[in-house]
Amino acid sequence: xxxxxxxxxxxxxxxxxxxxxxxxxxxxxxxxxxxxxxxxxxxxxxxxxxxxxxxxxxxxxxxxxxxxxxxxxxxxxxxxxxxxxxxxxxxxxxxxxxxxxxxxxxxxxxxxxxxxxxxxxxxxxxxxxxxxxxxxxxxxxxxxxxxxxxxxxxxxxxxxxxxxxxxxxxxxxxxxxxxxxxxxxxxxxxxxxxxxxxxxxxxxxxxxxxxxxxxxxxxxxxxxxxxxxxxxxxxxxxxxxxxxxxxxxxxxxxxxxxxxxxxxxxxxxxxxxxxxxxxxxxxxxxxxxxxxxxxxxxxxxxxxxxxxxxxxxxxxxxxxxxxxxxxxxxxxxxxxxxxxxxxxxxxxxxxxxxxxxxxxxxxxxxxxxxxxxxxxxxxxxxxxxxxxxxxxxxxxxxxxxxxxxxxxxxxxxxxxxxxxxxxxxxxxxxxxxxxxxxxxxxxxxxxxxxxxxxxxxxxxxxxxxxxxxxxxxxxxxxxxxxxxxxxxxxxxxxxxxxxxxxxxxxxxxxxxxxxxxxxxxxxxxxxxxxxxxxxxxxxxxxxxxxxxxxxxxxxxxxxxxxxxxxxxxxxxxxxxxxxxxxxxxxxxxxxxxxxxxxxxxxxxxxxxxxxxxxxxxxxx
Length: 620
Fold this sequence. Notes:
39% of the residues lie in helices and 26% in strands. It has four domains: 10-169, 2-Layer Sandwich (Beta-Lactamase); 180-336, Beta-Lactamase; 339-446, Beta-Lactamase; 459-617, 2-Layer Sandwich (Alpha-Beta Plaits), CATH 3.30.70. The radius of gyration is 30 Å and the shape is globular. The model is unreliable at 174-181, 185-190, 305-309 and 311-323 (pLDDT under 50). Strand 9 and strand 10 (268-279) form a beta hairpin. The longest helix is centred in the N-terminal third of the chain and has 32 residues, at 141-172.
């Protein structure tokens, strides 16, 4: 088994991999979502985001594999790092590099491998996104493009974290902090996932942070040569100017608007714009403060079932004003931020509580400032973990939360729960640690995701699992049968006489019968079995952990026929239906695919239907 050669840039690559703080860390949904997509879209049992260390490959995200690392000399990914192109191995047993590899000759019995290198901003390959199968196969051009596109998403996330790490190191080497107050608000800018700008009364960009520049596609110096009117979509300009006029005359203290900007190159970006004004000593408008949040993903989600990850992080370093002017500007930004901002000292006592925090959690700033955070918004069940985490960081410098975007439960003043997206960082001033956190309420988003997930996998009339759920469940059940040595069976059920119910009593009565069928199916089968509605009057039942004969399956099928044969009460009358059932058994050593198993059960159902109502096929 020839080991992969060591890259020429190995020392630099290992140093950067260590600096990224990805090795030996907790699983993250941003990566787990990608590996799940690889497994689902390419139909492979194993998908990995692998990082290649000096002596091992370690899996930051893994689907279908229980171990978290393997020796580097066994790693297919160590070979994939050496080339700019994806590494595709159709059959590992025919490849001299891998034929004797323990991962090929033993578990997990790799036959097919496809890996795309994941590189840093400087082009150093630190790992791969890979797809693995236990059977030989080829990738189509479209499938390879899917793997490359998903690897690009992982790579962008890695490079994004690389930039954050570099920015953090540069900040630590920057000029001495002018004061604790200034440093606190500068860290707020470093955490904000929003664009921030100062705009002249005539519309020119006086200054803009890096997030806004990236959002609009202009370099900061290019943006300063434009006005906001020039980059605003024509259809949104009048509304923006009207609100700005009212702000200028004092009719409004601030305004908020969803609008579109035109990016450099002609692309469109949707934003949530919040504008307030800064007056000089004469009471005249000196400039406007604009807080700009990219809501493109939100707009896209209104027209689609899912949206991919979009992440914005802002760093602002405004040093052109005197200290008191700078603090006033920063306070105005915090007060008008869309996300809740909370500042803490190293004892966990609240020192800053902005307006969005008041709206999100129900406490006024007067109530919150000076109180321990764990008495305000942290659920009782997590109080101990919060205190232990704070103490561990203050005493050892180790933290699993700082510098990461995580989703955590919280609680409002009235006791109601919510989910928030948390981003926390720390700054040390004169030996004292100060924590800064942005929190965004994602309760509605999480509930909507849960609803969408339920609706995509369930039949809304009967609340049974649907065809999509069946096609997802069958391959997993087959693998489980192979692993446990227990057979499984699929029952394909078609109702006899259902059309007559619709014709005689109407479709509402037909719906009542279908709901009754669903209820009775669930009452007959075991809790470990599953019932599905495919379409119309077709249902399936998945039976697991059976013996190696049709006896168990036929026994359940006859119980179902007996149960479905009972009359269904509908509007003062009753309806009667029967059922024809086809049975397909999958044994641990079978090789039939999920689609083939479904077709066999369907074929047997039609044989039962031709033999007359209330039949089960095949017969003994």
